[in-house]
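Lecture 7, part B: from sequences to assemblies.

Below are the input chains for today's worked example.
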Amino acid sequence: MAGDRPSSSGTAASSVEFRSATKRYHGQADAALEDLSLTVDAGEICVLVGPSGCGKTTALRLVNRMIELSEGDILIDGVSIRTRPAAELRRDIGYVIQQIGLFPHLTIGDNIGVVPRLLGWDRARIARRVAEMLDLVSLPADMRDRFPAQLSGGQRQRIGVARALAADPPLMLMDEPFGAIDPINRERLQNQFLRLQAEIRKTILFVTHDIDEAIKMGDRVAVMQKGGVLAQYASPAELLMNPANDFVEDFVGADRALKRLALIRVRDIDLWKAPLAQVGEPTAAVRGRIPEADLPHPLVVDGEGRPVGWMSERDLVQETVPAKPDSAAEPLIEIDYVLRDALSDLLQSDTQYGPVVDERGRLAGVLSVEIISHFLNSPSATEHISDPAARATA
Amino acid sequence: MMVDLPLGFLSDFSEAFDFIFNTREAQTGGVQVGGPAEVLEFTWEHVKVSGAAIGVACAVAIPAGLALGHAGKGELLAISISNIGRAVPSLALIAFFVAYLGVGFTNVTLALVLLAIPPILTNTYVGVRQVDRDVIDAGRGMGLNPQQVVRRIELPLALPSIFGGIRTSAVNVVATATIAPLAGVLTLGDYILSANVYGQDGRLAGAILVALLALCVEAAFAGLQRLSVPRGLALGDHI
Amino acid sequence: MLAQVEIRERSGDSCIARNDFCPGWIVDNFDRYTDPLAEHLFLTVAAVACGFVIAFTLALLARRRRWIVGPIVGVTGVLYTLPSLAVFFLLLPITGRGTTTALIALTAYTLQIIFRNIITGLDNVPPDARDAGRGMGLTDRQLLWRVELPLAVPDIVAGLRIATTTTVGLATLAVFAGAGGLGEQIVTGSNITFKTGVVAAGGLAVLLALVLDVVLLTVQRLMTPWRRAQPA
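Predicted structure of the full complex, as structure tokens:
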């Protein structure tokens, strides 16, 4: 999605506060939600995560009064949700559910325009807004006249988000919004959504059962246990490094260390320097650079500094650096990748080393599996957690 | 209409009941009409012609429905027959048979058979189609040949639907048998159609009796339908 | 009787005299059928319309109070089981002879199928569309009129179509209630043995049923453009 566009968020984001929010159902011993107290700051993504039966969806649906509180209160911008009629309250809150729930009998344009129409916007304004929303979720403008049945799952999901944003609500509730999508498209949608959020900065309450999604998407994550109890409410990094109890530790998973890789970018760590070679250079010069480098294999780069390939032993014996080195410079790792994806690429290819390039394809260093594991074990690992909005990769 | 004696109709009804239990002289004079013996006679005739029609219709429609349903063919046919069957007025059907074949028990029964076939055929077909494909697959996998699949799997599981169709047909046939007197078969409808003989009381009595008969038939077949559900199969909301 | 014999003699002497089926006669004497046809059409449309209004009201009531559905289906079921002919005469002491009696009976007959189909249609609305609608801030009434009813149209119209075709058939009996209709051309006098007349009257009824069915189907197609869209 392009960087420059007219601001689609005119309203400021809201803060949400749960104050001892409790929900009990008749005849059930355990509460669905037990005494939840937490605050979501304006413009933040708060992810509620936990196993089924932990009350995460209950908590979400209490906010827009799809379910009513048994005890406690929920405040939006300091005002209790009870003070307004439910239907009115909901028009100010974007609501995205797993099955999306597009109205099959309305066109995409009409679907998006439902809440604006409820709010009494005039037709011209609604039409403009629909076009804006389609652009925002990177869908073609002519999609407005199609029907939901004609769209793919991923497209419908994006329309669901567009519909929730149409009236520019200060708060969004999302209940496993990407749950019904296949893993490949899910990652793309997650990335797109994070980029979107970087622009519009809404307050978002996001429910998922997938801890990886929670870590990727959340500014702060609330881990919930069975019985509606909050186990820990903290940033993803804090969660990974200092789980509050055994449950959180188990839930986050034994591969906590690996999970941390999702939080860190290649640009954040120290890369290795390879001996560089230019095409046509005498190999003797190249051989001279090897002892000072971090690895013994020379990397051929072109005039712009872009990697061409690795030189083998055979190449080194030649007079000059060949234009086509024996090994290709793969995998190419972009400097903005999260370590998790970079590691994945490295492991899948046959080579030990991956050249790291910047946005223009110029060499920035070399990455290896060794560097990553070394980094994970070092005490400085925690200092390099990036801004969540920039966690989205291509 | 309702102007003069709002509750006058109550006395009409009581006189109609009287007609059923006591004979009296015909309006046209001479013979005695009414009374339990005559009522039973007409009722029996009504039941006879209806029963015969339903029986023949079942003998024709159920095998046809089973065959079509099993083969999965002829959905359009089944639905079209059902639609056309609904659209043909029963009166026209009876009249058509009277005009072309003349009066008589057989002719009326034939007309009623035509009327009864569509719901039974359609419901049998749909009932078989709705049997879980996995169950049929398992049966075939176990070595059942097609006839056995029909007899042991599709038929029992389709029974509730089939009985639903028979039930609908039965009610329709009983209702249409009311006009059978036009074709010379004296059912309870004669009380209604020949009011000049039986009088207002007779006519109303006929209406009451026909209504009761229809309700009994409906109840009986509803009961049969419930009994026909194979044990272990939960009955859904579709009664 | 005499008049009818005269009318028959007017065209195609021998054909009519033999009491064969004579299409020519139908064409010549079509004006005999225009009034009954109009009456028949009126009876059908009025009965189905009234039945729809009543069934719709009942369905709206039943939406919030599911327990009502059972009793309503039961009562309308009884009305459906009672043969119309019997009902005409059961009503006779109360409402007398005429169109009203016929209409009451015909309307009662349509109630069950229309009611059940409205309920089924509303129940078949995808639950996620309903959830999303509520979550977006649609009030209950807005949800009903803007989401649930439009999506229930196919089921509702299916019920109306069945009710209409059945009512056309039953309205032939309306003659017995003194309400006219095509049945009059079959039953009065010795018409019942008059082959051409019977086929004409019956055929017109079937034709009427088919035409009304197509009209309803067309209305449904017009009201549901989204069902024509090709899936992705």
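Note for the exam: Chains B and A do not touch (no CB pair under 8 Å). Keep this in mind when comparing with the next example.
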